[in-house]
Write a structure and sequence with these properties.
By secondary structure, the chain is of the alpha+beta class. The chain contains 9 helices and 4 strands. Helix 1 packs across helix 2. The longest helix has 27 residues. The mean pLDDT is about 90.
Length: about 230
């Protein structure tokens, strides 16, 4: 059954994702809800409801709705201002090196205690041994054993000036042939991939910036709650 409350709920969710409340949006959402109801009724006629654990599904849905209500209540009392969004936008822009377009780099590293070990590993990699496997075995960097030394996608501003110049010269899949001295050891750098990026404007970025504040609030709230909770498993 399509109710006004259900339609309003979906309109509200669409607006929260940055869409504008237009007659076209309302019609599209109404059509989608009608289609969903028709499909659900067909599933009921086929007696498929018995194979679904509705209690667990309801529990998860209830949690999702309560978390959404928690977030809405928090930001009703402490609204996100344009100044805060601008500050976050500027912070993210600095990570790109203050460029509106350019490259992102997917980088991996192996860090070992001394240059001799680093040179030995470079030799082994050049002979065909897998970078990720050697990172798991020998790297002293945090997380290397689980992620094979992968650092993920990075903006230029997340790299030191030396590494920015270094990775810009590397081809995809290649390593830098000389160890780099870093804090705590010597690093072997590999460029896994690179891609173009274009930094969206401030107004275009607002929905994503707001979501960043929501995620930050949830992380901090969970951290506080876990520190005070008695969790039994």
């Amino acid at each position: 059954m399509l109710t006004k409350g259900l339609l309003d709920l979906n309109i509200k969710a669409a607006i929260a994702q940055g869409q504008k409340n237009t007659p076209e949006l309302q019609k599209a959402l109404k059509d989608e809800l009608i289609n969903r109801e028709l499909l659900a009724q067909q599933a009921e006629r086929m007696d498929l409801e018995k194979g679904i654990d509705l209690d667990d599904q309801y529990t998860q849905l209830r949690q999702t709705l309560l978390i959404q209500a928690l977030v809405e209540e928090h930001f009703k009392k402490s609204p996100i201002t344009d100044a805060q969004l601008r500050e976050e936008y500027d912070r993210q822009r600095k990570l790109t090196g203050d460029a509106t377009s350019g490259y992102q780099y997917r980088v991996s590293q192996i860090i070992v205690a001394n240059e001799t070990d680093a040179l030995d590993l470079i030799s082994r990699i050049n002979k065909g041994e897998l970078f990720g496997k050697l990172a798991q075995q020998y790297s002293i960097a945090d997380g290397a054993k689980s992620n094979g030394g992968q650092l993920g996608w990075l903006f230029p501003g997340q790299l030191s000036p030396e590494l920015q110049q270094l990775v810009a010269k590397l081809n995809k899949g290649s390593i830098y042939g000389t160890p780099i001295q870093v804090q705590g050891g010597w690093a072997i750098i590999k460029l896994d991939d690179k891609r173009n990026y274009k930094l969206p404007g401030f107004e275009e970025s607002k929905p994503q910036l707001r979501q960043a504040f929501v995620q930050q609030y949830l992380v901090e709230t969970v951290k506080d709650l876990r520190s005070r909770a008695r969790i039994t498993q």
